[in-house]
Structure formats: C-alpha cells, structure tokens
C-alpha cells in the first residue's frame, strides 16, 4: 500500500508538470489572446487529482503480466480522459469549437498519460539498475570474505 501511494504521488507531480506544459501549448495555439489571473494555477492541480482517481480505484492485488498491465493502463487512461472531459466540458452546449477543443484536450491527456508512464518507467528502471549494481557489489564483497 505504501509503495502504491508513493507511485500515485509521484505520478501526480509528473502529471501536474506535464499538464502545465500542455496548457501552455494548447492555450498558445487555441486561444493566444486569452489572459488569466492567479486562479488558473489551481487547474493543473485539479486535473492532476482527477488523473490519479482511476489509479486509486483500481486494485493491484497480485503481480500483473505485461499484457494485463497494458490493459490496465489503457483502461485507466480512458477513464482519465472521460473524467477530465466531463469536468471541463460538462454542462456546455455542443458546438464545432467545443468539439475541436475537446479533441485537442483528449489527445493531450493521452500524451500526458503516456508521458507519465514513460517517466515513471524510466525512474523505476533507474532505481532497479542501482539496486542490481548494489546487489552485485554486495555479492562480490561477500564472496571475497568467504575465500
């Protein structure tokens, strides 16, 4: 449980950073004339919280195969896209501009989700490599002491 919480918090902070970048890029493209006040700084945090909800409600009771992990990630990503689109566009009347904006948002959510997974994998691999190196050094020292 502690490990899952650490992973979720790490993913939250990675998500918020990538959401800020996506908001900058999308805002510059879709609404370059738009200016915001300080209240806009809360939205990446809200989106980050929404983005971790699927990870909080899915269980990791047993070790998953690669195929199962991929399927779980796809389901979590689709849930994240749906939740964010509902939060942003829920209650708005549908028009052409809204649909185009929703498509851009959905694509950026998918890219952010993929980025979070890639960065998390890279960090986990780096940690695993360091642990492996430590284990090899420990085994070498241990075998020298026996000899």
What does this structure look like?
The protein has 147 residues and is an all-alpha fold. Helices cover 82% and strands 0% of the residues. α2 (42-57) packs across α3 (66-89). The longest helix has 51 residues, at 96-146. The radius of gyration is 20 Å and the shape is elongated. The model has no long low-confidence stretch (mean pLDDT 88).
Percentage of β-strand residues: under 5%
Average predicted confidence as pLDDT? 88
Count of helical segments?
4
Low-confidence stretches: none
**β-strand number:** 0
Q: Span from first to last CA?
A: 41 Å
Short recap of the structure:
Helix content is 82%, strand content 0%. The protein has four helices and no strands.
How do the helices and strands line up, and which of them pair or pack?
Layout: H1 2-30, H2 42-57, H3 66-89, H4 96-146
Helix pairs in contact: 1-2, 1-4, 2-3, 3-4
Q: What descriptors fit this protein?
A:
mainly alpha, 82% helix
């Amino acid at each position: 449980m502690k490990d899952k919480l650490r992973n979720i918090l790490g993913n939250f902070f990675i998500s918020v950073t990538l959401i800020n970048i996506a908001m900058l890029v999308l805002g510059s493209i879709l609404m370059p004339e738009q200016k915001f006040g300080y209240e806009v700084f809360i939205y990446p945090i809200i989106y980050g919280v929404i983005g971790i909800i699927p990870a909080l409600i899915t269980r990791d009771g047993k070790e998953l195969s690669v195929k199962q992990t991929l399927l779980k990630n796809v389901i979590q990503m689709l849930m994240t896209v749906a939740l964010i689109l509902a939060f942003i566009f829920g209650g708005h009347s549908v028009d052409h501009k809204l649909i185009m904006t929703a498509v851009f948002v959905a694509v950026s959510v998918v890219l952010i989700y993929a980025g979070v997974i890639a960065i998390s994998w890279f960090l986990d691999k780096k940690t695993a490599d360091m642990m492996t190196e430590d284990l090899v050094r420990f085994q070498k020292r241990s075998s020298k002491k026996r000899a």
